[in-house]
UniProtKB/TrEMBL annotation, chain B:
It comes from Candidatus Wallbacteria bacterium GWC2_49_35. It comes from the Bacteria. GO terms for cellular component: plasma membrane. It is a multi-pass membrane protein. It is found in: Membrane. This is Formate hydrogenlyase. The lineage of its organism: Bacteria, Candidatus Walliibacteriota. Pfam families: NADHdh (PF00146).
Length: 705, 317
């Protein structure tokens, strides 16, 4: 470390960061050392990752609470010499500011929960039914997981564009390896391949973005990029904005670049899915917000409008595909796409408000984005862990094979319910508070006098309302098809479902409690966002009444516009529920309760009579048939005499709009172009020599010119 | 001037008034419909007699039902009563609305809907599933129109805080004399009809399972639990009526903390609600229930009306 004077909090933070990072490395090394014993690997890496995560959480808490804002340069002299354009003074450096602290908190807390969860969850892979290379699988998952977490942390703290891009690439590759852990399944290979292509497509745009920044500033250091946006003309600004929107948006899963996300996230082991959906997506949003507000000065109005439209489309289509999906984890992955859309709507409100000089309102909108990022990290990792537990307990992956699990898995059901309620933005959960804040941000944007914004914003508000109503549908659909009524296709499974072990329940319980706490005590938590906000958008000195940790109300700009007090409202909700219980169970006379079979017009009731997940959303598929473009298939089986119908199979699937109309034509075009180009490949050496000669000639001519 | 204690007392009393009044609204609507059809109809107090009768009965519960089925009536009743606690019915000056704005109130209704739709699925009955699925369809398309209507109101009154909306509207000339508010009124009227499950969206009087939405979901409830769910549905209806009445006619509400002022305001409030119930009853008698898949078109009308209102607002400046 160079001679930077460190105050106490910064010293503590740095020390904890180093301890955490080296523990992750140790965890990786331990797999190499104990490569003989799979159970030992699982146990050891789980403990080490948990410890590292807790150190990280402590570090992030110190940074967030203390408001430290320090740069820690570290010299990589040999590398600077190797890459000649790097001047020796242009050292790699990491910067742990409160804004990074916020995201480090998310990364480390979720990864600590995932580490604990993996301890029992990975035992599933030691089970006898995993035939092929089961040992290698455990070793790879255990070894790559800590590196993946470390790479994400490096993305967040790096303060140098080359270090940033390296960490970004590592994050992508490690997550790719984790997605591919189930590689003997052809679906996984397709998912992994799509992921690899899409993530590099996005990264290419980031390379262009950072090269352009280098050409404007002559530096790779992030500190030099602050407010570089001042030098851009409006069209240049929009161009730069689109570069990062595509670059980071691919990783975050905005439409139409989302196609890899619902394929890749579900294929990973569940605790990794939780990390990818809950955390990795947030890391790319971290970088996006940082580039927009810190480097591009909050961009301009045009960028904000583009982002708003993209966000609204992502939110609606994401949830629409989520509610017709039959694979449990795929449903959750599509819901991640939706939530990214909602976060993008909040960010776009901030961009629009900032560009129209309403800094106080812009700060509120950005806080809404931060809070939704936190809420989504909590509930989506909870839901993915819950999905892992359901699959672990019931051995089913498809919603059509589940049902009635609330009796065998009561704990998982309760935690999953907390997650689902948060996903559906119901009070008193964290998801509700953030959604409320996004609604208020949209209302704040209405202040702007321009007519097209005044029309666009309410329509986006309606889009958000639609997506939240559909999220409620999706939440109900997920919960009932997994946990309620009777199990469907019960004869397909040998064993009855069973509750998962304590080490898997514990992290889910912690996340469920946090979902509640972040709802009820939200003004308190929002109070700590001030520092994080200030490090990317100078807000100190503005009159913002949001950032007092002892506040009781959440107030967007002025209480004339609106206010809520979650503590008061939700305490009253609990009091009202207790009051109802007292009145109807103790004050009014009690009556008997008789248990009897469900009424079914006199027929014998069985599990086939129940509504299936597909039939539940079929009316919605008909209402929105212009979006879903449903393909209906009816297969009829007759008896031998062909007169009596034995069985009718009816299936209706939604057409994935972008896959069909954007990607398929593009791939066709690509293949056709490749076929044309094939004629150039003659397979004779002398022809290739000719090509080399011509190329060289052209190069020389162009240099001379 | 208005201390927290005063606000608390008024809110509690207002909640009790609203809950006590809620079944009467259904009774009045039924009576109006009967009069329109030249029938005598049940007495207006019939909903109260029904509730008392249900409370006296034992209940039969499905064997597949889990704890969720038992919890649902309590959550519904609590959520709706809490919403009644927050909505300024008798006085906007003494109200809890800084604690909860209109969006929180709508999400409280969504909380109740979440539990009810799950409870309908809990019994493994096909009727519950059908009704639950349809309820979700109607609410999914009604929600955007609802939010758009409130966006329009928020643009005119510059707030989503109900007390501010009402006090701002009370200070201006009669709201329905301006085009944008007239559009919003009709948009909200349609949504309120849809949300309360009335004709043309759902028929509360039917007893044919295949056509029911709300009744289908509560098919497995009986005895005490049925009474609670019915009461909750009455409260929800009263809430939505209060909302539309008080946003567009926020007059003669309580402004001073005296018993006389309170009684006068309460009487005016009850009168307003009953007049609105009569209007709903007449409206319901004059149309027939539409097919399920025509419901989106009806709500589409509401959506367009709300959007028109916003555009009118912008054009007027």
């Amino acid at each position: 470390m160079c001679g930077v004077k460190l105050i106490m909090a910064e010293k503590t933070a740095l020390l904890l960061f180093l301890i955490s990072s080296f523990t992750y490395l140790a965890s990786f090394a331990s797999v190499l050392i104990f490569h003989k014993n799979e159970r030992q690997i699982i146990r050891l890496t789980s403990v080490l990752n948990l410890f590292a995560g807790i150190c990280g959480v402590a570090m992030a808490a110190v940074v967030l609470a203390g408001g430290t804002n320090a740069v820690y340069p570290f010299s990589l002299g040999s590398l600077s010499e190797m890459i000649s354009i790097l001047s020796p003074a242009d050292d790699f450096s990491i910067k742990i500011c409160p804004y990074a602290g916020l995201f480090l908190l998310i990364i480390y807390s979720i990864s600590a929960a995932a580490a604990l969860y993996s301890r029992s969850y990975l035992n599933e892979y030691t089970a006898a039914h995993v035939q092929y290379s089961r040992f290698a699988k455990i070793a790879i998952i255990s070894a790559i997981f800590p590196l993946f977490v470390l790479a994400m942390a490096m993305v967040v703290v790096s303060n140098h564009s080359i270090l940033f891009l390296c960490s970004w690439e590592m994050m992508s590759l490690f997550s790719y390896f984790l997605v591919m852990s189930d590689h003997e399944n052809p679906k996984t290979r397709t998912a992994g391949f799509t992921y690899l292509i899409m993530t590099h497509f996005g990264t290419a745009f980031l390379f262009v973005f950072f090269m352009l920044l280098y050409s404007h500033t002559g530096s790779f250091d992030f500190s030099a990029y602050v407010n570089v946006g001042n030098r851009f003309s409006p069209s240049e600004m929009t161009f730069m904005f689109i570069l990062i929107l595509i670059g980071f948006g691919t990783k975050a899963g905005i439409m139409p670049l989302h196609i890899w996300l619902p394929l890749a996230h579900p294929q990973a082991p569940s605790h990794v899915s939780a990390m990818m959906s809950g955390v990795m997506v947030k890391v790319s949003l971290f970088a996006f917000i940082k580039c927009v507000f810190s480097f591009l000065n909050g961009a301009n109005l045009a960028s904000g409008v583009i982002l708003l439209i993209v966000g609204a489309i992502t939110a609606i289509l994401g949830i629409m595909y989520s509610i017709v999906e039959s694979d449990l984890k795929k449903c959750l992955a599509f819901s991640t796409v939706e939530n990214v859309g909602i976060i993008m709507i909040a960010i776009s409100c901030a961009v629009i408000l900032h560009s129209q000089s309403y800094p106080v309102s812009a700060a509120f909108a950005l806080c809404a984005a931060f809070y939704h990022i936190m809420a989504h990290a909590l509930f989506k990792s909870l839901l993915f862990m819950g999905a892992g537990a359901i699959i672990y307990g019931s051995h089913a992956k498809n919603l059509d094979d589940m049902g009635g699990l609330i009796r065998q898995m009561p704990h998982t059901a309760a935690y999953f319910m907390a997650g689902v309620m948060s996903m559906a933005a119901l009070p008193p959960m964290a998801g509700f508070i953030s959604e409320w804040m996004v609604f208020q941000s949209i209302l704040l944007t209405l202040k702007d006098p321009q007519a097209f914004i005044k029309i666009l914003m309410p329509v986006c508000g309606a889009a958000l309302a639609l997506s939240s109503a559909l999220a409620l549908t999706g939440g109900v659909r997920l919960f009932f098809s997994v946990f309620l009524a009777k199990r469907r296709n019960a004869d397909k499974f040998k064993h009855e479902a069973k509750e998962v072990p304590l080490s898997m329940r514990l992290p889910m319980m912690a996340l469920a409690v946090l979902c509640f706490a972040f709802g009820i005590f939200s003004p308190h938590f929002i109070g700590y966002l001030g520092g994080a906000l200030n490090s990317i958008m100078p807000v100190y000195g503005l009159n913002i009444n949001l950032f007092s940790p002892n506040a009781l109300y959440i107030v967007p700009v002025s209480s004339q516009l609106s206010s809520i007090s979650p503590q008061a409202a939700f305490t009253m909700l609990i009091l009202f529920i207790l009051g109802t219980i007292v009145i109807f169970n103790y004050i009014l006379p009690r009556r008997k309760v008789k248990v009897y079979e469900t009424w079914s017009c006199g027929a014998d009731i069985n599990s086939i009579m129940q509504y299936t997940p597909a039939s539940y959303t079929q009316p919605l598929m008909l209402v929105f048939k212009n979006i879903y473009l449903p393909q209906t298939e009816v297969r009829t089986q007759h008896n031998e005499d062909r007169l009596i119908i034995k069985k009718v199979d009816y299936s209706q699937t939604a057409t994935m709009f972008f896959e069909k109309w954007l990607y398929r034509p593009f791939i066709k075009l690509l293949i056709r172009a490749a076929k044309r180009l094939k004629r150039v490949q003659l397979g004779h050496v002398h022809v290739y020599l000719l090509y080399i000669f011509v190329t060289l000639l052209l190069a020389l001519i162009s240099v001379r010119l | 001037m208005n201390t927290n204690q005063e606000i608390l007392i008024i809110s509690v009393v207002q909640t009790i008034v609203l809950i006590a009044l809620a079944p009467l609204i259904s009774g009045v609507i039924k009576k109006v419909k009967a009069v329109c059809q030249f029938r005598q109809g049940p007495p207006v107090m019939q909903p109260y007699y029904d509730l008392i009768k249900y409370l006296k009965k034992d209940s039969v519960v499905s064997e597949t039902a889990s704890w969720l089925f038992f919890a649902t009536p309590y959550v519904m009743l609590a959520a709706f009563s809490l919403a009644a606690f927050f909505i300024p019915a008798i006085s906007y000056k003494f109200s809890m609305s800084p604690v909860a704005d209109i969006i929180l109130i709508f999400y409280l209704l969504a909380l109740a809907r979440f539990f009810l739709t799950l409870a309908a699925m809990d019994t493994a009955s096909a009727f519950g599933g059908m009704a639950s699925s349809r309820e979700m369809m109607v609410c999914a398309i009604a929600e955007p129109a609802l939010i758009l209507s409130f966006m329009s109101i928020a643009i005119t009154q510059k707030s989503t805080n109900l007390a501010n909306i009402m006090s701002s509207a009370a200070g201006k000339s009669f709201m329905l004399f301006s085009a944008e508010n007239l559009f919003v009124f009709f948009a909200l009227f349609l949504i309120v009809i849809a949300e309360t499950g009335r004709v043309p969206f759902d028929n509360p009087a039917t007893h044919l399972e295949l056509t029911m939405i709300h009744e289908g979901m509560i098919l497995e409830y009986s005895g005490k639990y049925l009474a609670m769910i019915h009461l909750a549905a009455y409260i929800k209806q009263a809430l939505l009526f209060t909302l539309i009445v008080n946003i567009f006619f926020p007059y003669y509400m309580m402004t001073t903390y005296t018993l006389a002022a309170f009684s006068a305001a309460a009487a005016v409030f009850i009168l307003k609600i009953l007049i609105f119930s009569i209007i709903v009853g007449v409206f319901e008698s004059s149309i027939s229930k539409s097919r399920l898949f025509q419901v989106p078109d009806l709500i589409g009308i509401s959506f367009v009306l709300a959007l028109t209102s916003i555009i009118t607002n912008i054009v007027k400046g």
